Amino acid sequence: MPRLKLTGVDEGLTVLVSTKLTGADEPQLVLDAILNLFPEFTCGLPDKPNFPTEQDDILASEGVPLDTFLDSIHKQAILDTSLDFMSKNLDSSGTIFHISRQAAMEGKVAFPLPGDNPLGGVITVEIGGENLDDWLEAATWHSGREDIPRSVGDEFTMDEKGEAVTWH
Q1: What is the pTM of this model?
Q2: CB of 25 within 8 A of CB of 55?
Q3: Which position among 41, 139, 159, 162 has the lowest Cβ density within 10 Å, counted as fewest Cβ atoms?
């Protein structure tokens, strides 16, 4: 059975993608990293910083489709990890998670461990909407779940330090 292709658009969700520019961050390079995973991200860019700089800008775009991001986690086969990280901060209003900008430069998704401040900064993704837990499960579904079902917050969810729970 082919997988359901979710995008987050016209699915009752709100999506906000953002990142903070600080120090010597090159705005165009940061935007290029974002566009690798969110090609419909749109926003204005601040001027290129001159050293020394006290740059402190936010790049943000609302209503960004998640299809390229979701395709990437499927191609990388990191669906259970994605479900865990994407739902870690899930509450009744939505969820928020971070991905590495450095990995995004190569079109890859990497989730920083809790408390880590990865080199190159992070892209923040905020998703809101009703029944978001069901949407996250559908967006990260893979055929292995026919044998070992997964759901948000189940007994296989990684622990607070990002360690995997062994289930085999």
Answers
A1: 0.88
A2: yes
A3: 159
Record the tokens describing residue 9, joined without a space.
């658009």
Residue 14, both tokens: 């709100």
Give the number of other Cβ atoms within 10 Å of residue 100's Cβ.
21
* Residue among 108, 21, 103 at smallest CA distance from 73: 108
Q: Give the 3-state secondary structure of the chain.
A: CCCCCCCCCCCCCEEEEEEEEECCCCHHHHHHHHHHHCCCCCCCCCCCCCCCCCCEEEEEEECCCCHHHHHHHHHCCCHHHHHHHHHCCCECCEEEEEEEHHHHCCCCCCCCCCCCCCCCCEEEEEEECCCHHHHHHHHCCCHHHHCCCCCCCCCCCCCCCCCCCCCC
CATH number (3.40.50.1820, 3.60.15.10, 1.10.533.10, 3.30.1440.10) of 14-146 reads 3.30.1440.10
CB atoms within 10 A of CB 76: 15
In the chain, pLDDT over 70 holds for what percent of residues?
89
Predicted confidence (pLDDT) per residue in 87-140, tens digit: 999 999 999 999 999 999 999 999 998 788 888 899 999 999 999 999 999 999
Amino acid at 126: E
